[in-house]
Amino acid sequence: MFSGMCQAGAWFCFDEFNRIDIEVLSVVAQQIREIQNAMQAGQSPFNFQGTEIPLNPNCAVFITMNPGYAGRTELPDNLKSLFRPVAMMIPDYALIAEIMLYSEGFKTAKPLSQKMVQLYKLSSEQLSQQRHYDFGMRAVKSVLVMAGQLRRDNTQLSEDIVLIRAMRESNLPKFLAEDVPLFEDIVGDLFPDAIVPKNDYGALMTTLEEVCKDKCYQLIPNQLHKTIELYDTFGVRHGVMLVGPTRGGKTVCRDILADAMTRLREVHKSPDERFQTVIQKQMNPKSISIDEMFGCFSELTQEWKEGLLSYFVSDVVKDDSLTKKWIISTCLTLFLLFLLILSNQP
């Protein structure tokens, strides 16, 4: 890759560079150092990793990183010294929210964006500090996209009601019980005259109760409520994490929701497109290695060995050919491109 960059004079930008393992970063630092030394000396061709290649002086390398999130690697000093740092200012959340609301068709975008940003600011200050709470730009953007979808689906509702519903449905499922009243109070203070109608879960709730009775489960109102929240979350998120203590009902919530949606589609023949047949594939990631999970290239056989994840995806879509065009990137899969790509391209 670096060899092609040097010869073509291309510009490379490595996004989220500090996600790479520290061992790989050290190797990258050595290669970039070789390129920079050759550029400073005006050498062309030059020896790069044992091969003589021409050097186009127009080539350049850029990296972006966000050290504020978990799972990031601290860049080694020998790599930091190769780049000129550029610090970015804190974005104007209100302006970004206003523009996104306008793009989603809201007419009162300016006051709504200001109230939304204020709500997130107060929530971050007054609610308990939990690792899974996120009141940053990612959370704001997801709520705005959800609000746009709700507005298109519920044209009879006022814009402030639509935004309140989006903020509630996006945030309440992840809050601890003691934080829910605080969040509701903040919403009430910012939108004092708003009366939000409750969602109608009639068919889904009835089917959930049927499934519980068939499985000999007790009908616990709080568990049914959390199952409804899980259903709402699936409507706005591509990845969902169930967090709770052992024997807290996480698996039960997931299973009864899957059975209820399948029953609504296949038995009750519901015309609602939100109810689809659910196929569950269970995997225990802590019991297997990364290569076993995502697949790897075998240096012994010089062939790609499929991982469990790609096997499950292929099995679900009934693709027996296992088309070899994948490299894993969970971040891209869930948030950016909505694609699953594995590193076994021919």
TrEMBL record:
The UniProt entry, under Gene3D superfamilies, shows:
1.10.8.710, P-loop containing nucleotide triphosphate hydrolases (3.40.50.300)
- Every copy of the Dynein heavy chain hydrolytic ATP-binding dynein motor region domain together lies at 1-251
Q: Which SUPFAM superfamilies match?
A: P-loop containing nucleoside triphosphate hydrolases
Write out the transmembrane intervals: 326-343
For molecular function, the Gene Ontology terms on record are: ATP binding; dynein intermediate chain binding; dynein light intermediate chain binding
InterPro entries per UniProt: AAA_6, DHC, Dynein_AAA1S, P-loop_NTPase
* Protein's UniProt keywords contain Zinc: no
For this entry, the protein name equals: Putative dynein heavy chain
Species for this entry: Streblomastix strix
